[in-house]
Amino acid sequence: MYLNPRSASCQSDQCFIKKPVCRYIIVLLLLVTALGIRLHNITKLPLDFSPIREYQNAHIARGLYYETNDSISESRKQVAKLNMERMGFLLEPRIIENASVAGYRLMGAEHLWIPRVLSSIFWVVGGFFLYLIAMKLFSPGISLFSTFFYLFLPYSILASRTFQPDPLMVMMMLFSIYRVMKYDENPTWANLFTAAVIAAVAVFIKPYCVFIIFGGFFSLAVFRKGFWKAVLNRNTIIYGFSIILPAFAYYFSAFGFVGEHAKSSFLPNLLVDPAFWSGWFTMIVQVIGYIAFLLAVIGLFKVKPGQPRALLLGLWAGYFVLGLSATYQIHTHSYYSLPLIPIAALSIAPIAGIFIDRARPLFSKRFMAGFLIFLLLIGFGLFFAIRSLPVKTMFAGHKQKLKTAAIFIGVNPEFGKFLSGDVEIDINMAKEIGEHVGHSPNTLILTPYFGRVIAYHGEFAGLPWPTSDSLYERSVSGARVPDIEKDFTPEHITLLYKGRLIKYTPDFFIITAFEEFKKQFDLRKVLYENYPVLVQNDDYLIFDLRKMSK
Fold this sequence. Notes:
With 550 residues, the chain is mainly alpha-helical. The protein has 28 helices and 7 strands. Helix 4 packs across helix 5, helix 8 runs parallel beside helix 10 and helix 15 runs antiparallel to helix 17.
């Protein structure tokens, strides 16, 4: 099998990637094409992937941006600050948010496409590090395939444009793994220090990558030294403590020893619940699809023994431990499996190598080079051409078949939004609501995405009323579920806010999620029986709660 560049290097003129300069030109072409695709509809509202999480960061960035902007009125600053505190939960360090604010200032305005472009760049740069990793494990042709998979998997295109720290974290995670391999090949203090510093940055950005990074390091150490020698090795201990120290210091100062988010993430009772394991598998399928997952598992057993197999086993083990450490998110949030994409890209490589080896004698180097460029151009052209096709009409009668096929090949259901750009909301409606409530800093909100989207565009502040999904999350985590009779009083409303109960006195209750409102009979009853309707139409319903404060 063609897995080692040293032992299976190109032997004839038929190998068009024999020269490094040719390979790097192809890699550059892949990276530029991948970035170009990610800029498609980049100025649209960030609703095509995890809007709740993206607008959480958008509120944080706005609050930071308004703080030092003298052209913003004090009332707007107050609303932005409240939303930053209420909807922009402090989870990870605000690196991407501060980078976005720098972009806002540079452009002279608040543009949500700025952080999305930054995330796209981070992911694409991560593709270069993945290529360097693959080149140390496999042949040039297989390395290019792994890079292609990582860059052009539909889910990676969606998730890599998101206003979240995850693309930056994945980039640094791949950089870390590359430096771990450099250290494994030449275990000097300088290489250990470099690997530890880069890994510490990755873990600081978002801690859950620590399991994958350390998994790769430790697995290679076991391969070289054996299990117990690896456990007791001085360098293993130094590396392990070094990479978590900055993150531990930050999270301990911000949340104490165990924050509320961590408490709600690790729910050991889920480990014995079959729904947890099926949900986790469903998230994996949404990210890479059935076929890619199956090939990745097979490839893990086909990969050459030695450094390649040791590294991949460590990365897979790290991903598994990641899932066990975040039991709630791993089976409900697909982007928690984002690090699986580069792991799968490397694991599929041995399977791709089988086909590449068998096909190589059939083609000349000129043919292969031309064919690769032809495929890229055709794919790029089809990508933009499909935007003008009446896709919804063409496939209206085959939705279930298409959905099933998409799951098998790894096309996320949300990918259609990316292609069509059909992700707009009625911003005018949000602005109307903002005017009706006088841009109030104290509202209750029952709308899609926990009110984060509508509050952002309507420029009013408030707290979300729990939906059915959030009530399910509370039930599995053991958190308090609302009791309308006890919580909804003329003086105040008792809400669960950031893990603690607070007494909140809102001025208005804003509702746009009518189906959700219908499900909550007790809430409807107390509102209609006790509070006047301020505005009601087909798009939104607003109750006036100001008499509560009288």
